[in-house]
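All the exercises in this workshop are built on plain-text protein records. Sequence and backbone structure share a record, each on its own labelled line. The structure tokens are whole numbers drawn from a learned vocabulary of backbone shapes. The record below serves as our worked example for the rest of this section.
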Amino acid sequence: MSDIRIATAEDQILLDKEAKYCSYGDTVHYIEPPRIFSRCEGSYVWDTEDQAYLDLQMWYSAVNFGYANPRLNNALKQQIDTLPQIASQYLHKGKIELSEMIAVDAKKKFGLDGRVHFNVGGSQSIEDSLKVVRNASNGKSLMFAFEGGYHGRTLGASSITSSFRYRRRYGHFGERANFIPFPYHFRGPKGMTKEEYGSQCVQQFARLFETEYNGVWDPKTNQCEYAAFYVEPIQGTGGYVIPPMNFYRELKQVLDQHGILMVSDEIQMGFYRTGKLWSIEHFDVQPDVIVFGKALTNGLNPLGGIWAREELINPKVFPPGSTHSTFASNPLGTAVGLEMFKMTNEVDYGAMVMAKGKYFLEGLQDLQKRFPIIGDVDGLGLALRCEICGPDGFTPDKATLDYMVEEGMKGDMIVDGQKLGLILDVGGYYKNVITLAPSLEISYPEIDLGLKLLEQLLVRATKR
């Protein structure tokens, strides 16, 4: 095990400049000194010393199809040479065809007519969705959301994100969420199956509508004070928590009974991360609004958007000018998004991702048997979790996971004679969960490599 890594002279010059000139508002240094990266390809990134790191978080699931994916990169390059830019109030082919592709797919899967509205990223698209649901509910500004849920850090998005620290210094801007417990089975009541716990969570939520004195429902007018329930079908920053398959079906029944919209936040789990285009597809429900971003352009362009039911977003109820962004539906982003859809339609991405995810999860389960500090592993497709705990296998152990992350970034592990680092992401309610979001293009040998590197980190953690 190596000593603390020292930044090179060249890197230190850059770090000194960063310390003086860069805002830290969107910066988190998970290790010291921070790495500075110079290139990327496939499942790997290289630092300025040309040290390779296997990346198992892929820019928070924004780069689902691998770094520098040649096909998607070429789509961007070709668009640059034809129509690289045009004001968003003007039409271009990419915007129309990408909207059609998403809307037709939703009609096929959910049986609902709808329309697509673009913006420049996930948080901004959450803001647009809030406009849509507030407009549809005659201006109601209250929302339901989950404990452990994350929807962004703009003012509206942070108000429906359960972490108070993201809004503590800024207050609220209209929206405010009532945070409802999520069926986090590993930390739920003992003696219940996953499905039983999911049903219990729905029943607890349904109690809010029993009488007017539960605070959200007026039985005389059959009206709820809340406009929508914002859900991440698989919790992202909350630790890749996967609910039971009965959960959303039962929850949607309660929402429909009381006129509450379901907004599915697919920003992190969309575009085949879980083996389906949208993770909500696993649960046999019809969402009213879908919010997407990140992997739509494989991280090459900041483009996101929403799909909403026709009744919520047609021009009569959501007229021109309801919202606007200068760079929304830009031709570079829509060109990459179109190519992504064409690419994923040519092969059975769902089957491929589910097979790789099953293989990866089996490897994690093997590690769990051999390392008591792994309290829980789970996965759906290539959204996988590994919860690091104390010796009892349950008490959250953030410090050990922090240590593992730092060790992985030293770039000094040896596998089959190759020196490598490992990039992991930290999530969970207690920041003790490795949230694994590898490239969907990851090979089986690379999965094996990732498991071997994880094993080395676990050995280091248990011997320190």
User: Anything to note?
Assistant: The first helix runs from residue 9 to 21. The two ends are 10 Å apart (CA to CA). The first strand starts at residue 37 and ends at 41. The mean pLDDT is 96.
